[in-house]
Amino acid sequence: MFFLFVCSLFVPLSEAGLKDQVFETLLPNGLKVILLENPKAPLITFQVWYRVGSRNEAWGKTGLSHVLEHMMFKGTEKVGPEEFSRIIQENGGNLNAFTSYDNTAYFENLSSDRIQVAIDLESDRMQNLVLRQEDFRTERMVVVEERRLRTEDNPQAFLQEQMMATAFQIHPYHWPIIGWMEDLSRLTLEDLKSYYQTYYNPVNAFLVVVGDFKKDELLPKIEKAFGSYARGVVPDQDKIKDPPQVGERRISVKKEAQLPFLVMGYHVPNLRDPDSYVLEVIATILSGGKSSRFYQSLVREKRLVLSADADHSLLSRDPSLFYISADLLPGKEVAEVEKALDQELERLQKEPVGEKELEKAKNQLEAAFIYGQDSLYYQAMLLAQHEISLDWRAIDSYLPSIRKVSAEDIQRVAKRYLVPDNRTIGILVPQPPKETKPMPSVPSIKERMIR
Asked: pTM of the entire structure?
């Protein structure tokens, strides 16, 4: 079960600066260790992040990262199948793992006096995983059913997947994190072994530990457990980028559904470009709560949609998309909703955002950024996500970059990126159900990881 430990921070990361709070070291074998002492509760979160996700897969071999994540719980010579989870739970902790486009991560939340349990288990499976044919067949079937439930039988998720495949034609963000169904059926145990040997090495991983511990006591334990492993070879992380889009792309999906759904994806930079912080503010102005422009215009005044959302992929390894999505109300036309959304984007381009509205959006982002750090787990996640995308120290740039966004910046960025020639539009065309059955729950468009 996914669970967050919560405790209060003595000083927010973003205010004090990470140089004064976070300790980083690199073991001789290339394993980076990132430590943040937070003694306000006797808890720790121990996280191991591998710089491998679906973007590292090859055409015809999609889904390997996620299948390997499942197999990481199938045991080593020391720990039997399914024993990993049992040991953590017997020690009063909880655990999970997830795969994204850019990484695969594993974490344990435990009482701080049980940290050695996590160290021993994670260090063991980093290099000593036993990959059995029987386990592989079982887990591959589990992933196939997972895909069927989450994507094949979920019309909105299926549309979002098709939209990404249309927006990215060369870059590996083209394929879904969980993999294509046809590829999953063709994966072999040898594919998995080769993938594990290539990417699960100290030089391609890093640890993040946050909570109640003393660095000088913890670091020797980590060095003893992980330090003897061979360095491994640094994988090639450079991926071919798509050329600039030169015209609007459209795709429609016909699926059993009750109502139409609209999603747009605009190519935008990530946090390596200052414009990405402007896009954070734009997303908040458009859909940050019931006072946002989308809600006031499309939900409340025009009564076109049940909800409309804008989201920006700030923490992606490579430039991704700025998403706009809308759940239509019964009897409303997609063209009408699309026109209303376009009017809001044109308003951003033509009219400077008012001072009060801009300040409100900045305050919303700052509050979410700071209050989110009340969780030890989220502190570690924030460090790790920035490390994957650029460097964990980039966290220090978030609030200053948000605060200096101007109305002129918003107009400039909206004119540069949020234009029809730079977007891909996906439309769900509802089809009548073949039989009476409950509709699947709809995942958030912000969900870009598979647990």
From this structure: 0.92
